[in-house]
Amino acid sequence: ITAIIDWEHSKYGDILYDLAWASFWKPEVTFEQQYLLEQERQGIAVPDYSERLTCYKIHCGLGAMFKFRSLKNKEKYLFAKKRLLRTLLEAPQLSHFFWNFADVQDHNLA
């Protein structure tokens, strides 16, 4: 991957945020591995790679849950919540948060 263009939310920032967003919504695609392999091939170090990706995925998930909750779109809200729970489970340093987050009640989502 050379670049990901996101015109809807265009802003200056960390390329790993775009990578995390794509990976959050399409975990079956190997965006993360492809990016890291390309950086390694070019001899480019990526400091705190997994920690940054995890942080950005959590941000994407919480933002999506807020948006879909505000729109009262239960199906998409629960889909985003499931993806966020998966992110928490895949991050060993954050797995203890899973139990608290999994018990969150989804009130007023008709």
Q: What structural category characterises the helix and strand content?
A: mainly alpha
Radius of gyration: 15 Å
| Contiguous helical run count | 5
* Helix and strand run: HHHHH
Given as residue ranges, the uncertain stretches (5+ residues, pLDDT < 50) are: none
- Terminal Cα separation, in Å? 40 Å
Report on the biggest sheet. none
- State which percent range the strand residues make up: under 5%
Care to describe what's here?
This protein has 110 residues and is mainly α. Helix content is 63%, strand content 0%. It has helices at residues 15-25, 31-41, 49-70, 74-90, 95-102. Helix 1 packs across helix 3 (49-70), helix 3 runs antiparallel to helix 4 (74-90) and helix 4 packs antiparallel against helix 5 (95-102). The longest helix has 22 residues, at 49-70. It is globular. The mean pLDDT is 84.
Descriptive key words:
110 residues; mainly alpha; 63% helix
Blueprint (SSEs and pairs):
Elements: H1 15-25, H2 31-41, H3 49-70, H4 74-90, H5 95-102
Helix pairs in contact: 1-3, 3-4, 4-5
Briefly say what this structure is.
This protein has helices at residues 15-25, 31-41, 49-70, 74-90, 95-102. The chain is mainly alpha-helical. Helix 1 (15-25) packs across helix 3, helix 3 (49-70) packs antiparallel against helix 4 and helix 4 packs antiparallel against helix 5 (95-102).
